[in-house]
Amino acid sequence: MDLNWFGVNWAYLWTLTVLVVDNVIRIVALFVVPRNRRPTSGMAWLMAIFALPVPGLLLFLIIGSKRLPRAREQKQEAINLFVAEVAEREERTLVTQIDPLPPGIANAVKLGRSLGAQPMLRGNEATICIDYERSFEEMAAAIREAREYVHIEFYILVHDSTTNDVFVAMREAVERGVKVRVLLDHISAVRNPGARRTRKSLTDLGADWAYMLPVRPWRGEYQRPDLRNHRKILVVDGKIGFMGSQNLVDSSYNKRSNRRRGLHWKDLMVRVEGPIVLGLEAVFQGDWYLETGEYLTHLTEGIRIVDRPGNLDCQIVPSGPGYETENNLQVFVSLLYTAQHRISITSPYFVPDGSIMNALRAATARGVAVELFVSEAGDQAVVYHAQRSYYEELLRAGVRIWMYRPPYILHSKHFTIDDEVAVVGSSNMDQRSFGLNMEISMVVHGEEFVRDLDLVNDYYRENSRELTIEEWLKQPLRSQLLDGLARLTSALQ
After folding, report:
1. What mean pLDDT comes out for the span 432-456?
2. Which parts of 95-248 fold into alpha helices (H)?
């Protein structure tokens, strides 16, 4: 076909234009992409853009920035200042004295406070539940004790047969005059079965509810669509709280693919009483203000009459794009370096950055026994293979890897340091939880709580098999290739 129209070789002109555009994109990317971005992420983005300039650029424009809208950032800054001011006023009555703590732990607590505006509070009690259905029974029972308000915030919240008792308890609470407020993540609600039924149930029972991080451009609500609020919180009257890894949904997540494979999630939730409930309340209050613009006053009204039922020191560390630094990552790394005898980590999605890997290698090098609990089966292919890409390095460093047997997905997220310190919450040890998701973690100082978590680890160990370096080196080449590619794509953030 002759493309020389009007004396112009259009094929040549088109080719030249494409070459110019491609090279301009590549040159501009060299200046824009690496700025204020960790080297691994910047390199991954540059490789993607250099390989496919136009598609790479479009993807970068959609998910290349984790900045929230300016109005939302201003709200986050305001609520952070408020929480800090409340903590300062209550310094003498509720806050744990740092001096008596072991030096390494004291430094981690100071770091957490400076980054997340949450102090460590004394006088708390915490009980662990790893029975999926029983945790819903305990939540429903707590809601039935409510006299003033119930605050519920979950990444995934679905009204189904398993969670029905919680919804019934919410309805009963509303009927007796209790204020029920509910937050659920927008994108996860859309993606999971039962979204319409859940919306209708929340409205019909009379709860005030809102989506977290909604992506609705037609309403002027938009930010990077894969920035999610991954927290799991329940607060009753500022006296009883729940937090951990479990979503408010059936253990199969009601998905056909999971049911076809027989998959069920294993999680861990912690019921807390004492001043630390104020920390959970503060996080909920901040998220409620961000999503609704309504300023709640429960934190200031109830803070001086909090009971101290136990002897645990606890610190809430909220994290996410609303904070300037990856504060959960920094606190985790700081604590890992304090270990003298042992470290036990449970994470369903373990895709660590360099600082975590360095901390674990340093731990094993100084004689610390390190073990990692993960799932043998995977529910997210890319993350599953990215995680596997670290196994050889971990095994060679002396880390023992326990793989929880199918058909269960071990979804709990916690770790212990020696005999005194533990961290539980919603945060995985991966780059998404460190930089993109809004998470909540709780640092606990207390031997009794660590002993309880040790029993949980014993249960995991009994239901897992240990991965050895000999077995791992027999992996086929195709698996190694998939693992390496997934590891590369995991850095795109």
Report:
1. 93
2. 103-116, 132-144, 164-175, 186-191, 195-205
CATH architecture of 70-104+120-314: 2-Layer Sandwich (3.30)
Give me the amino acid identity at 422: A
Does 354 or 466 have the greater pLDDT score? 466
pLDDT at 146 over 80: yes
Alpha-carbon distance of 22 to 27, in angstroms, equals 9
Cα(347)–Cα(332) distance, integer angstroms: 13
Cβ within 8 Å of residue 260, ≥6 positions away: none
pLDDT computed for residue 272 by the predictor: 97
Tens digits of per-residue pLDDT, 272-287? 999 899 889 989 998 9
CA distances from 270 to 124, 180, 424, 441 (A): 12, 21, 8, 11
The helix/strand/coil state of 159 is coil
Q: Which amino acid is at 130?
A: I
Instruction: Extract the tokens encoding 108.
Output: 């981690």
The answer to whether residues 29 and 46 touch, using CB atoms and an 8 Å cutoff, is yes
pTM for the model: 0.89
Are the C-beta atoms of 80 and 299 separated by less than 8 Å? Answer: no
The residue type at 490: S
Structure tokens, 276: 């630390």
User: Which DSSP string do the residues of 8-34 spell out, in sequence order?
Assistant: EEHHHHHHHHHHHHHHHHHHHHHHHTT
Give every CB contact of residue 28 below 8 A, 6+ residues apart in sequence. Answer: none
Are 46 and 28 within 8 A, CB to CB? Answer: no
Q: How many CA atoms lie within 13 A of 25 on its CB side?
A: 23
The DSSP string of 290-332 is: HHH-PPP-HHHHHGGG----S-EEEEEEEESTTSSS-HHHHHH
Looking at the structure, give the CATH architecture of the domain made up of residues 327-489.
Answer: 2-Layer Sandwich (3.30)
Determine the straight-line distance between the first and last CA of the chain, rounded to whole angstroms: 44
